[in-house]
Design goal:
The protein is mostly beta strands and about 350 residues long. The chain is built from four helices and 19 strands. A six-stranded antiparallel barrel has the order 9-10-11-16-13-12. A six-stranded antiparallel β-barrel has the order 2-3-4-8-7-6. Strand 14 and strand 15 form a beta hairpin.
Length: about 350
């Protein structure tokens, strides 16, 4: 019997070496390359769902640490936050404050129970309908901190350690600074509005970061958000991480005008930009908040207020809510203090200028 052992020629060996080098390059490109190839489709219409991420292609990337939150007042997207903690420490996730039920501009939650809430990580679409989704369900133990007062954010403590999740192929996402205007990014989340239950998996699309703006979405006034042209942002997308090519989180989706219609009201679901020229609604615009400053709230891998952490302590919050109806900068607006809440002075109302209230 002839010897069929494969013995490549020098030319073949060169091609094999080139092929190996290409594979290495693709591995280094990681998340950015794979996500550009793996979306099943990205529709042209802003309010159409973005493309699905398939389990066979997205496993092993930062996308494994993004999932669907269930059991909270709103369906939302959450993601595993890398705080530099040892593997044995409890893991933390991040989402929007509105997702945990905050519907005003004064509440700051601290160490609240999360009920039966859970985060389904590695929430990818199967390759075929016969293949089950390899999701990793993780209980949410507590709402460690949450607010929509100037910032729409919630930090969740999970019922698993970083090490346990890493063993299941889920590694935490490192937060970094928002990039310059015009930078291309990737948004990934689990939208649910108008999507059949059997298709509610992780979806994503590329988009471009825009300018910094304040956003009025009564009853919320949100500071220093970044606009973007990210599409496919529907109900359930709040809390979606925004990635750079290295798979790091440069920000998080808070709100959008996609699907808001022609109603000019600056209300929940219909955010308006507040600028020097007044208040306006920007069509098909998605707003992103920074997340890199959150690392200062985990000095030893566990959540701590104070020090360099910029998040508010609820004990020091003055219960004041601005009554604004599209007032341009420089206008005088009324700010009423809630008499049922403790305030530093026995003052029933104060006056201030739009854009200068703190």
């Amino acid at each position: 019997m002839p010897d069929r052992t494969f013995d490549p020629t020098p030319r073949a060996r060169r091609w094999l070496a080139i092929g190996a080098a290409l594979l290495t390059l693709l591995a280094v490109a990681g998340l950015w390359y794979r996500t550009s190839q793996q979306t099943a489709r990205v529709d042209d219409e802003a309010n159409d769902p973005a493309g699905l991420f398939l389990a066979s292609q997205a496993a092993g990337t930062s996308l494994a640490a993004v999932g669907r939150l269930e059991g909270l007042p709103l369906p939302c997207t959450g993601w595993l936050l890398d705080v530099g903690a040892p593997p044995a420490e409890p893991a933390y996730a991040v989402t929007s404050g509105r997702c945990v039920g905050i519907s005003d501009s004064v509440t700051v939650l601290l160490d609240e129970p999360a009920g039966d809430a859970a985060l389904s990580l590695r929430h990818f679409a199967p390759v075929t309908s016969a293949e089950p989704s390899p999701a990793v369900p993780v209980p949410v133990e507590a709402v460690v901190w949450a607010s929509a007062r100037w910032r729409d954010l919630a930090i969740l403590e999970l019922g698993a350690t970083y090490g346990e999740l890493a063993e299941q192929g889920v590694r935490a996402i490192r937060p970094v600074a928002l990039p310059a205007q015009g930078t291309q990014v990737l948004v990934a989340g689990v939208p649910v509005d108008g999507i059949p239950v059997e298709q509610r998996f992780l979806r994503g699309s590329r988009c471009t970061i825009g300018a910094t703006t304040d956003v009025l979405e009564q009853p919320w006034m949100l500071d220093d958000l970044r606009s973007s042209d990210c599409t496919g942002i529907l109900g359930g997308s709040s809390g979606s991480p925004v990635f750079n090519p290295a798979g790091e989180a440069v920000g998080m989706v808070t709100t959008t005008t996609i699907g808001a219609g022609d109603d000019p009201a600056c209300a929940a679901g219909r955010p308006c930009e507040v600028g020097q020229d007044g208040v306006r609604s920007a069509p098909d615009t998605t707003y992103v908040t920074a997340v890199d400053d959150l690392l200062a709230c985990f000095p030893d891998g566990t959540f701590q207020l104070g020090g360099d952490c910029g998040l508010e302590d609820p004990a020091g919050v003055v219960a004041a809510e601005p009554q604004v109806d599209g007032a341009p900068p420089g206008s005088t607006v009324e700010v009423r203090l809630d008499p049922a809440r403790p305030a530093p002075d026995a003052v029933s109302s104060v006056q201030g200028s739009v854009g200068s209230l703190t």
